[in-house]
Amino acid sequence: MAEHDLERLPKSIDAASRAQPSTQIQISVLTVVKVVLALVGLYIIYRLVDVIVMFFVALLLAALIDPFADWFQKRKIPRALAVLAIYIILFGILGLAIVLLVPPLLSELSELVRNFSGIWGSIATAFVSVQEISAEYGVAENIERGLRSLETGLYD
């Protein structure tokens, strides 16, 4: 376009023609399909997370039991019987731990509940004394001043 042609154009068209070209974003169908498939996959994993966790726990147990089962098998004990014996031993140890640990834990918990008001009172008293000491020595102001100097040091 010649210079005299630009003078005849309205100002809005002239300004629009000089503006930056508009940016177009193109998303291919394949990209949309990939995103949808990824979302569907994540949803399936979310729904099956319990099964996946159980699978890995079973895999871990099998890996832990295998050397012991091999040891029993070398001593002419059938593998199925060896695995059964290992499970019985493991559940026995777990049961023994529960029997030995739960009663003391319950008694300690009941003791804590019984003494909770006294414990809470001593915590509240200690907190009040900490507040008094903080006010007396200006701890809060010193901390605030230190944080401000740290902030200015970071931005300088």
In short:
This protein is mainly α and 156 residues long. Helices cover 86% and strands 0% of the residues. The longest helix has 36 residues, at 79-114.
Extract low-pLDDT stretches: none
The succession of helices and strands, N to C, reads HHHHHHH
Helical element count?
Answer: 7
Helix/strand/pairing class, anyone?
A: mainly alpha
Determine the strand fraction and express it as a percent band: under 5%
What is the rounded Rg?
37 Å
Counted beta strands: 0
Bulk shape:
flat
Distance between the termini: 53 Å
Average pLDDT, rounded to a whole number, is 85
User: What number of domains?
Assistant: 2
Largest beta sheet, briefly? none
Helix content: over 70%
List strands and helices in order, with pairings:
Blueprint: H1 3-8, H2 11-18, H3 29-47, H4 49-74, H5 79-114, H6 116-137, H7 139-155
What does this structure look like?
The chain has 156 residues and is mainly alpha-helical. The chain has two domains: 87 residues, no CATH class; 40 residues, no CATH class. Helices cover 86% and strands 0% of the residues. It contains seven helices and no strands. Helix 4 crosses helix 5. It is flat. The two termini are 53 Å apart. The mean pLDDT is 85.
